[in-house]
Design goal:
Number of strands: 2
Radius of gyration: 27 Å
Largest sheet: 2 strands, antiparallel
Strand order of the largest sheet: 1-2
Order of helices and strands: HHHHHHEEH
Structural class: mainly alpha
Helix content: 55-70%
Shape: elongated
Length: 162
């Protein structure tokens, strides 16, 4: 091979390496933009669902009006208190839902657990009527809210009134 050919190959190789660096940089920038777009999309979807839920909440009468149970230490009371006392995570989830409805991934971040575990906890809390799912028909972004019954038993647990 001639010297000129070798020099040409080296120059071509150098140019390709520089182009490769530029492409890697652009790729990294695009990945960041994609993450930002996904985050924005998720935020828009959450806002949309929350607006739907707000109108649903305003238009429906929930169990707050219906639930007027007084704690008297009966079998059902003690069963629910035992259920909550066996898992701090269940109590943490109820506390997380005190202010506003949330999706499992947000709750998971707040309490430091996985979304999978939180979803399982929410299912068991829902079975005991301590939380409700506000948009059961949706496959994603299911919002959960604490019920009046859930607030009642959370207060008992927090204040150790049992």
């Amino acid at each position: 091979m001639r010297t000129q050919d070798i020099e040409k190959l080296l120059n071509d190789n150098k140019k390709l390496n520089e182009e490769n660096k530029e492409l890697k940089k652009e790729n990294t920038e695009l990945k960041v933009k994609i993450k930002e777009l996904n985050y924005n999309l998720n935020s828009i979807q959450e806002d949309h669902i929350l607006k739907k839920l707000d109108s649903k909440i305003d238009n429906e009468t929930f169990d707050e009006v219906k639930f007027t149970h007084k704690f008297n230490g009966n079998k059902e009371d003690m069963s629910i208190i035992s259920f909550l006392a066996r898992s701090n995570k269940r109590v943490d989830i109820l506390k997380s839902l005190e202010e506003t409805p949330k999706i499992p991934s947000i709750i998971a971040k707040e309490i430091g657990d996985s979304s999978h575990h939180v979803s399982k906890y929410l299912t068991s809390l829902k079975e005991k009527e301590l939380v409700i799912c506000l948009n059961e028909e949706d496959k994603r972004f299911r919002f959960y809210r604490i019920t009046a019954k859930g607030k009642h038993y959370l207060e008992i647990i927090e204040n150790k009134k049992y």
